[in-house]
Amino acid sequence: MTRVRLDVSYDGTGFSGWAAQPERRTVAGVLAEALARLFGPDGASGLTVAGRTDAGVHATGQVCHVDLPDEAWARLAPTLVRRLAAVMPPDARVRAVREVPDDFDARFSATFRRYEYRVTDAPYGAEPLRRHDTLAWPRPLDVDTLNAAAKGFLGEHDFAAYCKRKENATTIRAISRLDWRRDPDGTLVATVQADAFCQAMVRSLVGALLAAGDGRRPVDWPAGLLSRRERESGVTVAPAHGLTLVAVGYPEDPEEYARRAELTRRLRG
Amino acid sequence: MTRVRLDVSYDGTGFSGWAAQPERRTVAGVLAEALARLFGPDGASGLTVAGRTDAGVHATGQVCHVDLPDEAWARLAPTLVRRLAAVMPPDARVRAVREVPDDFDARFSATFRRYEYRVTDAPYGAEPLRRHDTLAWPRPLDVDTLNAAAKGFLGEHDFAAYCKRKENATTIRAISRLDWRRDPDGTLVATVQADAFCQAMVRSLVGALLAAGDGRRPVDWPAGLLSRRERESGVTVAPAHGLTLVAVGYPEDPEEYARRAELTRRLRG
C-alpha cells in the first residue's frame, strides 16, 4: 500500500460534519464513496483526518491521509485530482494528492491547526455571496477590544472552560496565534492557531470574545474563565457557519513525522 | 416624494434576474415587496435600476432609485437599512440608503458600470465556498493571452457581434477597462468597465476571451469579430454565475445628473 496525503476543501453547509455517520451526509462519507468508485470497495483504507470539523464548519485547508494499493495509485496518480473532481459533489473537493512516507499521520503528525472565523457587524447583515461563511452580528464590534481580549488566550493553558469534558482527555492546549483583523470590506476575521483544539473550542473562544468585543462583557472576562475547571455555561458557542479550517501544519523534515506522532499521542493521553 | 438611492447586493443563484416578472422570484420583486411592507402598498414608486442583470448574475454594487413619501422617509431613514435587512431574504441586501436630488436617475445618470467575472482553471474545479460565483474551466488559461486578447476591445466600438439585436437600439459602446488578473489563490478575475452594456454582452466578451485564453482560438480572434454587423454564433456566452456587477459610477457633481441622463437617452436612442 502507498500512503497518500489528500488536501481537501469543503463548504460545510450541506454536511453533518467530517466524520462518517450512518444516514447522514458527511465529508468523510462522500470522500470514501469517491475513493471506492475509483479504487474499488476495498481499495482505499484507513482514511484519517487532521481536524474532525463539526456540522456546518467549512475547510479550505483540511488534510487527511489514506492508504491506496500501490499499482492503482501508480496508474491513477497523474489524473487523480481531476478524476476525484468528476465523481465528487461540488461542495467538496480534493485540491491535491501526493505520496507521503508511511509514518505520516494526518492527525497525529500535525504540529498545528489554523482556523479563521468571519463575522460582520454591518447593519445590513452578511454580504449575500459570503453569507454561507460569515456570521452576521447584530451589534457593533470593536477590533481593538477583540484583540485585547484575545491576548489572554495566547500560550499554554487549561481550556476546560471552553471544552466539552471527555474522560481521560487533557484540556490543555497551546495557542500560538489568536488575532482579529478588519478587512477592507468591513468583515472581521479572527485567525486562531494551536497545536490542537478540543471539540467546539474555537467557536467557544470566539463566542466569549464577541461578548467582550460588543461591550456586553469586560475585556478581561474571556481569559479570566481560564481558571475554571469546567465548561463555563456563560459562554455562547458561536455558530458553525462562520468557521473555516484554513491550514494544518506538519514538520518540515519527514523524519520528524513518527516522532511528532508519538509525542502527540503521549500528550493527548 | 423624496428620491432615495439604494445600494444593493445579491447572490443571483436563487433569482430569475433583476426585473420583476409574474410567477418568478426576482430581485426587483423581493425589494418591491420589502418596500411595500415598510411604506405601504402604494408608498414606494418608480423603482429603477442601473443594471438589469440576467438570471443567475450577482451584484455587490448594484444601484437603484425609488421615490418615497416625504414623511415616511424622514421617519424611517435612520433605521431603514436594518429594517430592510429584517424583512428581506438573506440572498438580497440593501447596503445603504440616501436621499438624492430629484434628477438623479439610477439608470440614465450612470457614467459607467463595472463587472467582474471569476473563473478558475484549477484541476479540482471551483473552491467549494466560492463555487456560486466562480466558473470552473476545464482547460488551463494563460493570463497574458487573456489580457492581450482583451486589449482589442478597449475604446468605442460597435459590439453588434456581442449583442442581442434590438430594434432601434445602438450596439455602440465604449469600454474603458477590460483586464484580467490571477489572484493569489489561482482564480482568474476579469474586470470590465463601460459606459453601458447591451444584454449578455459581458458574458459574450468573456466567452470569446476564454476561447483565446485556453488556446482554441487565435489571440486576435475576439477583437476581430468587432467588424461583424450581427451577433456571432461562434461566440459562447459564458455562464451567468461567474459574473458580478461590482460598481456603478455617477457624476461627482449632482448638477450633472440631469445633463448626463439627457445625454444617455440621446445616445441610446
Question: What is shown here, in short?
Answer:
By secondary structure, chain A is an alpha+beta fold. Helices cover 25% and strands 27% of the residues of chain A. The longest helix of chain A has 13 residues, at 27-39.
Biggest beta-sheet profile of chain A: 10 strands, mixed
State the CATH class of the largest domain in chain A: Alpha Beta
- Secondary structural class of chain A: alpha+beta
Mean pLDDT of chain A: 95
Largest interface comes to: A-B, 28 and 28 residues
Protein name (chains A, B): tRNA pseudouridine synthase A
EC number (chains A, B): 5.4.99.12
Keywords (chains A, B): Isomerase, tRNA processing
GO molecular function (chains A, B): tRNA pseudouridine(38-40) synthase activity
Layout of helices and strands:
Two copies of one chain form a homodimer.
Chain A lengths: L1 E9 L16 H13 L5 E5 L8 E11 L1 H7 L3 H8 L4 E8 L12 E9 L14 E2 L6 H9 L3 E4 L13 E11 L5 E7 L6 H13 L7 H4 L18 E7 L6 H13 L1
Parallel strand pairs in A: 3-10, 5-6
Antiparallel strand pairs in A: 1-3, 1-4, 2-3, 5-9, 5-10, 7-8, 8-9
EC number (chains A, B): 5.4.99.12
Catalytic activity (chains A, B): uridine(38/39/40) in tRNA = pseudouridine(38/39/40) in tRNA
Protein name (chains A, B): tRNA pseudouridine synthase A
General description of the model:
The structure is a homodimer of 269-residue chains. Chain A has 269 residues and is an alpha+beta fold. The first copy, chain A, has 2 domains: 98 residues, Pseudouridine synthase I, catalytic domain, N-terminal subdomain (Alpha-Beta Plaits, 2-Layer Sandwich), CATH 3.30.70; 141 residues, Alpha-Beta Plaits, CATH 3.30.70. Chain A is 25% helix and 27% strand. The first copy, chain A, has 7 helices and 10 strands. In chain A, strands 1, 2, 3, 4, 5, 6, 7, 8, 9 and 10 form a 10-stranded mixed sheet that branches. In chain A, strand 2 and strand 3 form a beta hairpin. In chain A, helix 4 packs across helix 5. The model of chain A has no long low-confidence stretch (mean pLDDT 95). The interface between A and B is medium-sized, with 28 and 28 residues.
